[in-house]
Design a protein that fits this description.
This is Aromatic ring-hydroxylating dioxygenase subunit alpha. Keywords: 2Fe-2S, Dioxygenase, Iron, Iron-sulfur, Metal-binding, Oxidoreductase. GO terms for molecular function: 2 iron, 2 sulfur cluster binding; dioxygenase activity; metal ion binding. By secondary structure, the chain is of the alpha+beta class. Helix content is 19%, strand content 33%. It folds into two domains: 8-122, Rieske [2Fe-2S] iron-sulphur domain (Rieske Iron-sulfur Protein, 3-layer Sandwich); 127-340, Alpha-Beta Complex (Naphthalene 1,2-dioxygenase Alpha Subunit, Chain A, domain 1), CATH 3.90.380.10. Strands 12-18-17-16-15-14-13 form a seven-stranded antiparallel sheet. Strands 2-3-4-9 form a four-stranded antiparallel sheet, with no helix packed on it. A four-stranded antiparallel sheet has the order 5-6-7-8, with no helix packed on it. A hairpin with a 2-residue loop joins strand 17 (244-256) and strand 18. Helix 1 (147-155) runs antiparallel to helix 5 (322-340). It is globular, with a radius of gyration of 22 Å.
Length: 344
């Protein structure tokens, strides 16, 4: 399958990688992640070179993972360092792939391409996740759909009115405006609803929930599959920072052609050190992503059969599809250039 390779993909949240082996298919490769004794995260292939057992089912022994089937041990470079059989000689071919990873802003990033082209400066700046002036809640879920269908959903802001109406809906949606702006290889989608009723998600946090507000949802897509939202409400005509404002992070990493990993975070400028509000955000995530987005995306993917590109099935286009179309075209061009050196 076509993927953009020479780029960083989110592989896990930092707290997911510890002394318990974590198995995760990434870009159709079985990957095993764990931390060495000193806390350094490593990523190697999860399939033993002997009888192909999943290494993740075995124990960690020091800085090595022991195969649960015949006891071979592999270190963080993928090299077999212990053979408990015969004279203990280690076959030259006894090794598994190793992957370049970096830990930054609470995420483990995996370089999916040519190791010689690995460049840590290409990791997105997500320092807001560690900003003490913001309250941040993070989460993860798997998705049985092509990762670009998840991206399409995130930058199609109109779906919030129908899929998330009980959270983000507005009775004034009919007066909304949508703008799509391309800046180089990024796409900005802006949905604005001036003089809106207060959306359900904010009604408990405004002194007078019956007052009118300016309501906005912005989404910025960056290749291959990162979307950052700016969502909030403020008094009509007032600056955005004067109201309730949140920043949403969405990272999709392909697992296979028809499955993906979805990492998300919500950072807000209100009720920063409020565990009860944190739990409320988690509930919104469970409902909004787990019970609303996930089922409709997976159901749509299933209805598409073996196809992963809606346009190849003759999808009808709406004005709100502009962001998704642009992101797909940009990504296709980047992949083509990477593979073939084609520059238009």
């Amino acid at each position: 399958m076509n993927y953009l390779r020479n780029i960083w993909y989110a592989a896990a949240w930092s707290e997911e990688v510890n002394r318990t082996p974590l198995a995760r298919d990434l870009l159709e490769k079985p990957v095993l992640m764990f931390r060495e004794v000193d806390g350094t995260p490593v990523a190697i292939g999860n399939r033993c070179s002997h009888r192909f057992a999943p290494l993740s089912q075995g124990p960690l022994v020091g800085n090595a993972i022991q195969c649960p089937y015949h006891g071979l041990r592999y270190d963080g470079t993928g090299t077999c360092v212990h053979n408990p059989h015969g004279n203990g000689e280690i076959p030259n071919a006894a090794r598994v792939p190793s992957y370049i990873i970096e830990e930054r802003h609470g995420l483990i990033w995996l370089w999916a391409g040519d190791p010689e082209k690995s460049d840590s400066t290409l990791i997105p700046d997500l320092s807001h996740l560690e900003n003490p002036m913001l309250g941040t809640v993070r989460g993860y879920m798997d998705m049985k759909a092509h990762y670009q269908l998840g991206v399409d959903n995130l930058i199609d802001l109109s779906h919030t009115q129908f899929v998330h109406g009980d959270i983000l809906g507005s009775d004034n949606y009919h007066s909304s405006s949508v703008e799509v702006i391309q800046h180089g290889e990024t796409v900005l989608v802006k949905l604005s609803i001036p003089n809106s009723d207060v959306p359900p998600i904010y009604q408990r946090h405004i002194s007078n929930p019956k007052e009118k507000v300016d309501y906005w949802l912005d989404a910025v897509w960056s290749p291959p599959a990162m979307v950052i939202n700016d969502v909030g409400v403020s008094a009509p005509g007032a600056p955005r920072d004067s109201g309730i404002r949140s920043k949403g992070l969405h990272l999709l990493t392909p697992a296979s052609e028809r499955s993906a990993h979805y990492f998300f975070a919500h950072s807000r400028n209100t009720k920063i050190n409020d565990p009860d509000f944190d739990e409320q955000i988690r509930e919104w995530h469970r409902v909004g992503f787990g019970q609303q987005d996930k089922p409709i995306i997976e159901a749509s993917a299933a209805m598409m059969g073996n196809e992963v590109d809606p346009m190849k099935l003759g999808a009808v286009l709406l004005p709100t599809d502009g962001g998704a179309l642009r992101s797909r075209r940009i990504l296709a061009k980047l992949i083509d250039t990477e593979r073939n050196g084609v520059v238009e």
